[in-house]
Design a protein that fits this description.
The complex is a heterodimer.
Chain A lengths: L6 E7 L2 E10 L4 H9 L8 E12 L1 H16 L4 E4 L6 H14 L9 H39 L6 H11 L4 H23 L7 H40 L2 H7 L4 H39 L4 H11 L2 H27 L5 H32 L3
Parallel strand pairs in A: 2-3, 3-4
Antiparallel strand pairs in A: 1-2
Chain B lengths: L5 E12 L2 E12 L3 E6 L5 H8 L7 E6 L9 H8 L2 E4 L11 H12 L4 H14 L16 H12 L6 E5 L7 H18 L2 E5 L3 H7 L2 E6 L2 E5 L1 H6 L3 H8 L1 H9 L1
Parallel strand pairs in B: 3-7, 3-8, 5-6, 6-7
Antiparallel strand pairs in B: 1-2, 1-4, 8-9
Helix pairs in contact in B: 3-4, 3-5, 4-5
Classes of the chains: A alpha/beta, B alpha/beta.
């Protein structure tokens, strides 16, 4: 197996350029041969020959190097003949002969970095706009889907809906409540620390109550649900798309909108408000625990203070957002899942994109709510 | 170079998943320069056998040697050395989806050899031409190719280092008859020029008849190896049905 490494001897004898090749002309020695062949000069040569009888082993790389050298010599106006090629290597010669014109074509698109950068920015902008439009149209489709359901409630996939409520709601309760509880602790601690300077520690309860009910409770829940369930929607539907399951559904006369999308949106519309409510309670409890420990406030005092600040409005402002966030997360999750195409790689890409897009849209929606509520003085 | 030398040796192989024994005391030798086709019913462990030989799966008992090296027990450096000597084509090509076809073909070259980029590009283009893809396929990503094209690109990557042994998992499944015939011709050429040994799992009776020197049939947890003609005379019920079924007769009728 381990024959002598490849070698190349060049001699110029009265205009006759002799290239004697030997050893194993394989891809393993191609780097040596490449540099040896680069040093071959055609100065003063009228004809050339490549002598291959000493070659002990050859593969397509070796055969290509021989062929390329011959072509280069011919181009330089030096007629070349190849001698002594063993019969065993004839098919290789034929293979490289057939593919020689492929080899000279580029294998990658040449890059111009500045142009590529401008192009990418432009492409990304157009893509975002197109995607916004497509998402809006998908939103329209889901509304139509729900409207059809109102006319014919029998078409609702009840089992799938309940299953989604279990997966996205029930199973998420521990993690959502725990995180919210911890955030309640953090807010109470940081708030108490600052307000103590004014001797206004008791207002920590106000701070906690308002921020937890109006903003943080529902927003944190939405972000967690986007990471937990929105990504799962994209991954599930995307995998089905790669396996052609969605196409199979269509050919069986089932509408993916009814079977996959509506139960998921419906499920989240039910789960997220419940989760947000539980998260708010957990956050308040966390804050209450912190308050009784650092503020010398008893639990009864905490509750009384909370009662005096919190109105139904605060609670309603928070809860009104929950179904909107749920709708955003669910349609982004399903939409990106349905856009998966081709390979498994695109499932991963779309899942990432789904989480980023849904959190982005949730925060935008939250900002819009804040502006609207503040102008309405709620 | 002894033509009868065995490049793959499997002896006493046992593979089991839990209580489910797939192969039991299986012996198989593949000779240098031959094309061996492996056939067997669904679930008899054809792909498992292939994956065990190339070292992706560990057998529960038995010895395997590929080019004299055990893919399971040999030191890592030794294993790496023989890995450059064989190429594997997986069922759906298994191309790296984030790389173009040309880059896919260059992965083994980059990893194991130091070649100038220009030469690697030329070689990648040659491999692409060899497997019968259009030259613009080089710049495409696997997701832009059809199933058959992905398979050919996978073959081009398997041939990247001009290996001594080629492992093929259902190479002609999903190819049209013209592509499959071109594939058979390619294997025959590579065999003559490179002394290539081919171990292929296949169900393509045309391929079996056209290029396989010997056929290994997986029955009763072992393999029976022989030429097509020998298998035709075998009276094991499965082997008889396989080589005398309506499809086999159709192949025979064309010959």
């Amino acid at each position: 197996m381990d024959d002598a490494t490849a070698w190349l001897k060049t001699s110029l004898d009265g205009g006759q350029l002799e290239l004697a090749a030997g050893g194993s002309w394989t891809i393993r020695d191609a780097a040596i041969l490449e540099s040896a062949l680069q040093n071959v000069s055609t100065d003063g040569a009228k004809a050339a020959s490549i002598e291959l009888s000493k070659v002990t082993e050859m593969d397509t790389a070796g055969a290509w190097l021989v062929r390329r050298t011959a072509l280069a010599l011919e181009d330089a106006g030096v007629p070349t003949d190849i001698r002594g090629m063993a019969d065993a290597y004839r098919p290789l010669e034929r293979i490289v002969e057939q593919t020689a014109d492929c080899a000279t074509r580029p294998v990658s698109v040449p890059h111009n970095y500045w142009r590529a950068m401008v192009e990418r920015v432009g492409r990304a902008t157009c893509d975002s706009l197109a995607e916004g439009k497509a998402l809006l149209s998908f939103y329209g489709e889901t509304v139509v889907g729900f409207a059809a359901l109102v006319r014919r409630p029998g078409r609702l996939r009840f089992t799938a809906l309940v299953n989604q409520v279990e997966l996205t709601g029930l199973n998420a309760i521990p993690i959502v409540c725990l995180l919210s509880f911890l955030i309640g602790i953090v807010i109470a601690f940081v708030g108490a620390d600052q307000l103590r300077r004014f001797g206004a520690e008791i207002f920590t309860v106000n701070l906690l109550g308002v921020i937890m009910l109006r903003e943080i409770g529902v927003l944190m829940t939405a972000i967690m649900v986007a990471g937990r369930s929105g990504s799962a929607y994209t991954a599930q539907i995307g995998t089905m798309q790669v396996n052609e399951e969605i196409d199979a559904l269509r050919t069986l006369g089932l509408n993916p909108m009814d079977v996959l999308v509506i139960p998921r949106i419906g499920g989240l519309l039910i789960s997220l408000p419940i989760l947000a409510f539980l998260a708010e309670i957990a956050g308040l409890l966390g804050g209450a625990m912190m308050a009784t420990m650092v503020l010398d406030v008893t639990f009864t005092q905490f509750v009384r203070q909370l009662e005096s600040v919190i109105t139904l409005n605060h609670f309603a402002v928070g809860m009104v957002k929950a179904p909107v966030f749920a709708y955003i997360i669910a349609i982004v999750g399903c939409y990106e899942g349905l856009r998966v195409g081709g390979s498994a790689e695109s499932v991963g890409r779309m899942t990432t994109k789904s989480v980023v897009t849904s959190i982005f849209l949730v925060i935008i929606a939250d900002a819009i709510f804040s502006v609207v509520f503040s102008t309405m003085r709620i | 170079m002894a033509t009868e030398e065995n490049v793959i040796r499997v002896s006493g192989l046992q593979t089991r998943f839990g209580a489910n024994v797939i192969h039991d005391d299986l012996d198989l030798q593949v000779r240098r320069g031959e094309v061996l086709g492996l056939v067997g019913g669904s679930g008899t462990g054809k792909s498992v056998l292939l994956r065990t030989i190339i070292g992706l799966m560990r057998p529960s008992a038995g010895e395997i040697e590929v080019l004299g090296v055990s893919p399971h027990r040999a030191p890592a450096a030794e294993r790496r050395r023989i890995q450059t000597r064989y190429g594997v084509l997986f069922q759906d090509g298994a191309l790296f989806s984030s790389l173009t076809v040309a880059e896919n073909i260059q992965v083994p070259m980059r990893e194991h050899l130091k070649l100038p980029q220009a030469l690697m590009n030329q070689l990648a283009a040659i491999k692409v031409g060899m497997v019968g893809l259009a030259s613009d396929a080089c710049m495409k990503y696997p997701s832009e190719l059809s199933g058959g094209m992905r398979k050919r690109a996978g073959l081009a990557r398997a041939l990247s280092l001009d290996p001594k042994i080629l492992f093929l998992d259902e190479p002609t499944a999903g190819l049209d008859p013209i592509g499959a015939a071109a594939f058979d011709q390619l294997i025959r050429d590579m065999k003559t020029s490179l002394g290539l040994t081919v171990f292929m799992v296949t169900h393509d009776l045309d391929s079996l008849a056209a290029i396989c020197d010997r056929v290994a049939v997986l029955v009763d947890k072992r393999v029976r190896v022989g030429t097509m003609a020998e298998h035709m005379r075998d009276d094991h019920p499965w082997i008889h049905d396989y080589f005398h079924g309506p499809r086999a007769r159709a192949v025979a009728a064309y010959d």
